[in-house]
Amino acid sequence: MSGIIRFGTDGWRARIAEGYTYDNVRRCAQGFAEYLLAKGHQGEWVVIGYDKRFQSESFAEACAEVMVANEIKVYLTQEATPTPVISYSVVDKGAVGAINITASHNPPVDNGFKVRNRYGGAIAPEGLKDIESRIPESIAGVKVMGYAEAVEGGRIEKFDPKPAYMAQIKKLVDLEPIKSAGLTILVDPMWGNGAGWFSELLAGGTTKVIEIHNTRNPIFPEMTRPEPIPPNVDVGLQNTNEYGADVLIITDGDADRLGIGDENGVFVDQLRVYGLLAYYLLEVRGERGPIVKTLSTTNMLKKLGNMYDVPIIETGVGFKYVAPAMLEHDALIGGEESGGYAFRGHVPERDGILAGLYILDMMVKLESKPSELIDLLFSKVGAHYYDRIDTRFSGDAEARREQILASDPKTIGGFNVEELNTKDGFKFSLGEYGWLLIRFSGTEPIIRVYTETTDPDRVQAILEDGLRVAGIK
Question: Out of 56-60, 299-303, 393-397, 442-446, which region has the weakest mean confidence (pLDDT)?
Answer without folding.
Answer: 442-446
